[in-house]
Structure formats: structure tokens, C-alpha cells
Amino acid sequence: MNRRMHKGLIVLGWLAVAAVAGLGAANQAMVAAQSEVGYVITETGVPVEGNFGRFDAQIDLRPDKMQASSVSFTVDTASVIFPATDVQRELAKPDWFDTARYPKAEFRSTRIRALGADRLEITGTLTIKGRAREVIVPVSLSRSGAMTYATGKLTIKRLEYGIGLGEWGDTSLVDDEVQIKFKIALSGMASG
């Protein structure tokens, strides 16, 4: 084996080690057991919290190259959890999530900006019940051991997405504004 080929194999070996060690790693994996997606609605003036049991994310955050980063997130709308079971059954119906026709809500990033101090601004398209709207999601990053947590809140207007139609369109019963809250645990994100 000549010297140049030997040197090339050494460089390839180091690149493989760096990839396995997660240096500059992309496509971080969501750790579902440590992640959560919830919401807060206001029903007749009283805040009510719930969450979703099933969701998935494809995340590729590159702190040194934000223009190449991307986030894609889907929520199984049939996995909605509400404190009252009769309301939870209602949420699957056409006036609400219409889970038979629209089983997923989806967010896809179009731009990610680093704001400094472990804060991001993620612009993208949120699609619920086939209705797409551009939203801006503020995200904070924090580390605990090998895990990175992305947390944030976003307020949407449910009627823009066709959620809570018919008699439920009365905003004195259920407020139009809904706060979406999330904490996503990520493995494989390089520190720095």
C-alpha cells in the first residue's frame, strides 16, 4: 500500500470515528419517553390543559450552519388527551379535529435563525385539517448530560384551522386562542 493511500484511509477512519462520536452530527433523534406536546384552551373563562400521546419529529439542527437545518413534526390528532372523556370523544368529530379525514397535524420549517443564548426562531408551515398557515415558533435549547431539550410555546387561532366549528365556533364558550406547548428531548446533538 502506498503512502498516499495509507494517509487517505487514516483520514477516512477519523471521519468515521467523528461520525460515530456525534461530532457535527445531524438528524438528531427525538426521545419520545422524555418529550411532550400539550395545549391550553380557555373554556368559559377557565384554562384547561391537555396533551397529545403520539407525535414524531425529524430534526436536523446544525448550530454552525442554521441555513442547512430543518425541523419536521407530526402529531397524531386521534391521540388528543382531554381531562373530560366525553369532550375527548367529541374532539375526533368533524367539527373539531375530524381525525378520520385528517389524522395528522404537521409542522415543516422553512427557516431557522439562531438568536443567541441557546434560543432559536423557527419559521414554518403549520397544517391542521388541511389548512396551512405560516407560524413563527420561539425555541429555547438546554442540555442535561447527553440530552438536549428544545422547549417552546406557540399561540394559534383555532378557527383559522377549522377547529371547533358549528356551535363550538362561539368564542365565549371556547376561546379562539390556543396555546401549544412542547418539550422535545433530543439525543445526538453535538454541544457547542
List the helices and strands and how they pair.
Elements: H1 3-21, E1 29-30, E2 36-43, E3 46-52, E4 55-60, E5 70-76, E6 80-81, H2 85-91, E7 104-116, E8 119-128, E9 131-144, E10 147-157, E11 177-187
How would you describe this structure to a colleague?
The protein has 192 residues and is mainly beta. The protein has a single domain, classed as Lipocalin, CATH 2.40.128. The chain has 2 helices and 11 strands; from the N terminus they run H-E-E-E-E-E-E-H-E-E-E-E-E. Strands 1, 2, 3, 4, 5, 6, 7, 8, 9, 10 and 11 form an 11-stranded antiparallel β-sheet that branches. The longest helix has 19 residues, at 3-21. It is elongated. Mean pLDDT is 86; it is low at 1-25.
Properties at a glance:
2 helices, disordered N terminus, single chain, eleven-stranded antiparallel beta sheet, 192 residues, mainly beta, 11 strands, Lipocalin
Question: Spans with pLDDT under 50 lasting ≥5 residues?
Answer: 1-25
* Amount of helix: 10-25%
CATH topology category name: Lipocalin
- For the record, the CATH architecture stands as Beta Barrel
Strand content: over 45%
Largest sheet report: 11 strands, antiparallel
N-to-C SSE string, H for helix and E for strand: HEEEEEEHEEEEE
Global geometry: elongated
What Rg, in angstroms, do the CA atoms define? 21 Å
Strand-pairing-aware structural class: mainly beta
Q: Kindly report how far apart the N and C termini lie.
A: 38 Å
Total of helices:
2
| Oligomer type | single chain
Q: Give the domain tally.
A: 1
